[in-house]
Specification:
alpha+beta, Aminopeptidase, 13-stranded mixed β-sheet, 14 helices
Amino acid sequence: MALADMNGQPLLRAITAEDAVIGAADRSVMRTRFAISARLTRNIEETEAVWKSLAAGPMESPGQSYEFIRLWIADRKIGPADQAFVIGEVDGKPVALLPLHRRRMAGLTVYKWFPRSQVGAYAPVSDYEALSELGSEGRAALWSAMIGELKDADCVYLRAIPEENSGHGPLFSELGTALAVETLYRSEFPSWEECDKLQRSRSRRKHDRQQGDRLDALGQVDFELITDPALGLPAIDVMFRQRSARFKVQGIRDTFVEDHLTGFYKAAMLPQSGIDVRLHVLRLNGDIVAVRYNVVEGDRMFCLISSMSADPSIQVGSPGKQCLLRVMQSVFDSGIRVFDMGSGFTDEKRHWCNVQTPVRQHYIGRTLRGRLAVSLHQRFQTLRAQAKANPKIKDGLRHLRQFADRFSPRQAPSE
């Protein structure tokens, strides 16, 4: 029986004599044109020069930032044995780097990105021009050499890689098998004027104005950009309190508190972190009613966390939406060209995002049990995506989480 993919297309076909000749010719060309190699280190400091050189171009995510990952490793206290940095080279020149966290799960050794859903998208840190020049066969050989350095891996799981990469097309399709389950939402405009013209209809402007009037009726409204830690750290505390209240209402696990992540986001705002954190804060009568936590890389801003007041009397003025409106009115005229709002559909993304890119989970099974785990996880991801699209199933899962949380111990946040 022929093997087929999820769309019914054949995965395997008969190999003809002509195929064999062509394949041999292609491999010969690859050996002639490129010398591909890979090396592994478990010390992030040894990668700094290569990492920053590769990250000089457009970045898909803070997860590609040397400073962000270095701080994550320190905050999470990840030992050197569980760190892996694989550098891929073409003709002796580094063209890609995979920063990976070795984890042991259900008896398996799995290599994954360091952060999880804390960052909306990831990708290998790469010289996109060099990857494009390699072509599909060359990229397949490069990824194979790099993954081959992970000698102890049962499988490699690389979540949320954008299907299209900064105008270079799909550069990571040859990296294992891929499953598209989410969409990344971005707002890309040269100016607020252009964004306003294309994204806001007359009825949308009227609706925004009515919400603004309701908020103004409650008192003095102020909007500010905060980069000073002295002002930012107290605002982050408020943001996490607002998020906790929202999670409780939604019946969602508070990962920031229960996984002790609040300290990381505070540390990221300190000057010594090297991370460009910018907070957008909306105040009502001096009190913070909405916060957006952003990381800036070049001309790209990534919103990692947003929050708003849980007070019903304040929510009538839609402080979260009013905060975002002011963000959109300011970011594109201050040097930002891409505002990344992460994956997962929301109303605010529908209103503001003009670029939608599928993100894919990439899998490489290295052992028999690793390949079995990959198959099971791919099926789980497919069912999970279907559940998200089904309101009844989604509501049932929410009630199940709420029931489980009643019997789960709560932990205090880190400081």
